Amino acid sequence: MEQPQKRELPDAQRSGQERAAVPRLGAPRSPRVFRVLFAETPFPAIRVGLPQCRESRYPSTIPPLACGLLGRLSAAVCFDPDRAACRRKSISLFPYSTWLNRPPAWPCSGNADEAARHCISCTDQAWLCYGWLALGVPTHGSCSLGARCPRGAVTACLCPSPRSTQNPKTSAIVKELVAEGNVAELQKYFGSRMEFGTAGLRAAMGAGISHMNDLTIIQTTQGFCRYLEKNFSDLKKRGVVIGFDARAHLSSGGSSKRFARLAANTFISQGVPVYLFSDITPTPFVPYTVTHLKLCAGIMVTASHNPKQDNGYKVYWENGAQIISPHDKGISQAIEENKEPWPQAWDDKQIDSSVLLHDPYATINKEYFKDIQKQCFHRKINKETNLKFVHTSVHGVGHKFVQLAFQAFDLRPPFAVPEQKDPDPEFPTVKYPNPEEGKGVLTLSFALAEKDGAKIILANDPDADRLAVAEKQESGEWKVFSGNELGALLGWWIFTCWKNQNRDACAIKDVYMLSSTVSSKILRAIALKEGFHFEETLTGFKWMGNRAKQLMDQGKAVLFAFEEAIGYMCCPAVLDKDGVSAAVITAEMASFLATRNLSLSQQLKAVYDEYGLHITKASYFICHDPKVIQQLFDNLRNYDGKDTYPKSCGRFKVSGIRDLTTGYDSSQPDQKAILPISKSSQMITFTFANGGVATMRTSGTEPKIKYYSELCAPPGNSDVEQLKKELDELVNALEKHFFQPEKNNLQRKTE
Which of 252, 304, 482, 516 is catalytic? Predict the structure, then answer.
């Protein structure tokens, strides 16, 4: 005879062991069922909106949570028609539903047992958290449910706060996805929070904690503000500067200007003075303002040359350089501790009447151009030159500022590409708004140059901190200089100008130039012959800017720094890459060379003839799967067994290895790297017996695995073609044996 079914108790009445044994929902059995992913673990299937949800393995006397969505709450709600019963069973965790309008009964500091008294299961609790996050509701506190949840399901279930996002566009996006049951997209939006690092934030604009939006900007700025308060006792006297570019995202209502105003509002609400630029501005103007006005910090809202949907939040310290560790970790922790928006966090209109709001636009425009004129050494030639230039800002902010820079140097203004000179967040004429990509971005510039008889093209990226240069050759073809080639030219030019201005032979002992470890070693070659100092830093201007400031504080003269990714620091007034000053200094260099009947290409050859040929080749593969990237680098570290690196790459013998992820350097006596290491990024450099060097590393802002290779020859070796052939073979071997693009499903760079 069939045994009567045992009536099971709600979780609230069970012991800890009994609660842990409660069966979870089974696999999906109808189209109405969808699976939810939260953090790393798939939750059991949840049946939505109809009585069929009773098909679950919950006891029939206890309707499962998450069967239906209730109004703006968009969280799992008991769907029992008996509202009183529903309230008794599970609804105490939904304080703002239409069924129960009172403060939450469960304190956010509660532990697992306390939480269990208010929800039927761990899964339901996860659903609650998911629902609040799905609306973009800021949360605070954490509930330690990990002990009773399936592993990885909920390790920090955040408690709800009454303040939800006040951006109707992002709310509408999420509500629509919830209504559609589009779990894949919801997981993208809420699966993980953006990580704040030394590069700040960089992500697509949109809804959810993984995107740039009003809420995440407010939370980030609140954390940054609290961190600055801990580090600067005079923060409310000195203040911060905030700039923004022209990016905007219609569907989510996000824009750089909107984000900048929300950030300003956050600081002003705490009594901190804010120098908010009233109009779009190049990124280098922010670090310049930090040092010029002696402020505590700076924020630039920009995604630089990223795709149009992206935006970013770039942070500078009081020294005018980008932040480095441990500030990134301290700010990140402060963000986690200040997620709930402060009162009036959304009301950015209140800043317009605040005495704490200042507009530095006019002052900085005047002072910046006055300072970069200190790098102008041939004003007479500039006035008389017949050389013509074309400039493109690639739909970004650079047009006006490059025009003003040319005016400051007494150069005739460059021809502006009409289709690209005005800011346009859609970047309609290019696939990628990045002049580093090469000729594809410069098509309109070539056409205008041919029409107006210009021989040189200057191209800034959208936030005007990078510069690409192209020159028409005698053959009629256009040569686009690599970042390393232009770095060689600018390094030679700036040192030559300094040498002509400083006849004291002793002065050179205090002169420095810098470049990143993945850039060409040409500055090192020049330094060895000329007698000044050269230093190599980790990749990125955050390292070069901070090192330059240290040297300057010691009374040293840092003339120049560059990275192969078309970034140049030509003026010590800006401790970051600056495409505006680089553009006008390049124009003066070209104008001077024209008086000697030399082109930029001819002068580059002369530099290599004098200091040694440096042939470089760099590219990248696109990979959107972090696990594949991790496995690729793990394989290189365990190539012929555990903890063994490759001894060769095709026919090329490996003579040295430096791994700045693990800290290993075979060239050092103790096999420990001298440069700082970073376990959060991948970077391995291989030195080969033929003198070649190749570095593989991950990008900090894009889904790319990049590589950089170089062959150096001593002065007098003019067999360029042989060196190029040798480097091509090395790169082909690197791709085939180390990247294995077919096996790892990597996408090659396309022009």
Answer: 304
